[in-house]
Amino acid sequence: MNNNINKRASSIARGINRAFWFNKLKAFFAVDVLIIAVSFGLFCYKSFLTIPSDEYVRSFTLTGQSYDNIVLHYFTDTSQYNFPMHEHIYFVSVVMGVIGVYQFMNLLGSFSFTARIRKKLKPLNELALKAEAISEVPLDTTKFEELEEAILKVPADNASARIATGDEDLASIEAALNSLLYRMQDARLQQARFVDDASHELRTPIAVIQGYANMLDRWGKDDPAVLEESIKAIKNESDNMKELIDQLLFLARGDNGRQKLSMEKLDLSAVMQEVWEESTMIDPDHKYIIEDNDNCYIYGDHAMIKQSIRIFVQNAAKYSDKGNNIKLSVRSDGSKVCYIVQDEGIGIAGEELSHIFERFYRSDKARNSSTGGSGLGLSIAKWIIDAHKGNVEVLSRQDIGTRITVVFDMCA
Fold it and tell me: What is the pTM of this model?
């Protein structure tokens, strides 16, 4: 079988060389015809310019009488005009002879290209030989049966279960399958946690609304105080539930690729100035300090970038005591632009930093505080930053504060 493969490779090499040789022959023939045609055209043109006419007809007047159609014969020395045809033919013959010798030697040497082509095809020939050798090896189905049995033994409800056969030949396949299994289990756990957290977050406002509705039905009809309290609570919980649903829809559209961005050139300092003015107006309990910079332009969606800054600022105010400073700044280093939100709040524990952008995640201090929140705000901010190809860095110390730095590419 190997001899047949080698013969096929040699036959292919000869076929390629034969086609190449005939293409070169046709090209040489076309060049020869072109040279002969050009030489003949130049000879005819030169002859036309140098051979004079020996007679012509014209009218002229002599001694008052007019003579028409008189044939005048001019006898001149035309030796200076005669074009040496034999020299032209000799020159063209020499040129064609030199070209012919070169073409003959070139075509003759082309017959040796078969060996070069065969050398270039050698890797493909070796690949065919190896494939042929592999196909001749008897298939050991017992290894695949062991692998199948190991896969079937993996429990679906055990997140730490892995495939193991103990066979060294299947080690690479085991590693690939275990990596795929880990990602699938992690995605399943995240989906289950997301559904559970969303249900929990929605259950709370619905339970509050239902409780106040029952209280109104029992006592609120005739008690103005109960009526006012119930209406206020129902409105607050309705707003919280609407905000939660809006956040869920935002993330769902982002995951499905339906969240559209209106990209344009933005002055990041101007956007930060807008957030600073709004925060100063609606939150008198904290002192907002701004440090801006000139020529800090990025390419992004104005509303989205502003929303990401607002999320970090609201988060800083939520977990900072009254009277604390919240510093907003924009900086540039020539190729990168960043905005920074720094607070003097409760901070984040080191083991929790890697989870703060997970959906519905809230630290223990946040859950125990009265600030509320669904745990989706930072996830939305992270999605916006990723959509703008930015990076976010978090530096936090408990009881000292947190600094959020978001970096983008500068727009020229």
Answer: 0.54
